[in-house]
Amino acid sequence: MDPYQFLQSEESNAWHKTVMFAPEVLDEVMALKSIFCNPKEFCLVNPSSFDVLEKISGPISFKISVSCVVGRDLSEGNSPVSIVVEMTVVISDEYPQKLPEISLSCAEMSKKDLNSLRKNLLEFANDIRRSSSEPMIMELVLWLQENTKAFLCFDNTSAASQCTNGGYCADKIMILLKIDHMRSKNRYIKTITRWIKELNLTGRLFLLNAFIFLLLTGDASDVKEYLRKHKTCNVDVDSSGKPCKERMMNVLVQEQAPRDLRISDFDKEECKSASQLKERFMELQLEDLFKEHINPLL
């Protein structure tokens, strides 16, 4: 054999060894990209570029933002109320014979509801695999769109439909607090979590190094009662270990809650960087709040 032909043959064999995904799988990924073509609807995570998709030898991962109708807003002419469920998918070279790894996130849903939704989605994926060897991601997306409503607490959808004109919820207040420090972190968080649950508030506690921010939303009277408790009741301990009140809390924001605020429960978010903290606020549709009130303090 001619040496040049031999080298060409070896290069061709090496290239084919790296192509580990079936053509129909690659076609599915490209089809999903075309279908979810609006900004931020489809994001290819690995590889970082579609140009090398056919040559990748490791897993393929991507995110799809799935819009799901969960109710109707009677105050807006019975218009649909939608939430966005972000589905992160990781597929190996054994897909679709092997199920994809799937994780779900949604700011309007509690962790319990999301876990239940994911469990049922994976059961549906298993049913597909038993009856077919074809790629299944689009079928999973359609299942999410049709079934998410059943896993969302009724209070969450009714809260969304209570929003009125001007992009704000008429009876909902949002506050952003800056807490100077927590000497007894566990005691502090346990205490404020109890108050938040008692008053039916929702929100996030953000921790970033020495910075502590508390975002809360709820009925105006309940938010005011929370502020009263936080300022007048023992919540921490002093340097000698005795219970003490919060003296150095600052109210950065107190205003009507935005209509598109995406919080349905209370949770703690420990961030490793300012950029990660910014991402959390962006997920809640509060990027402007971060830029105006948080970023200058960091």
From TrEMBL:
Keyword Nucleus applies: yes
Listed GO biological process terms: cellular response to stress; positive regulation of hypoxia-inducible factor-1alpha signaling pathway; positive regulation of protein sumoylation; regulation of gene expression
Location (main, coarse): cytoplasm
Location of this chain's protein in the cell: Cytoplasm; Nucleus
RWD domain span: 27-151
Any Pfam family matching the protein: RWD
This protein's UniProt keywords: Cytoplasm, Nucleus
CDD domains: RWD_RWDD3, RWDD3_C
InterPro entries in the cross-refs: RWD_dom, RWDD3, UBQ-conjugating_enzyme/RWD
CC annotations in GO: cytoplasm; nucleus
Top-level taxon of the source organism: Eukaryota
Name of this protein: RWD domain-containing protein 3
Organism: Pocillopora damicornis
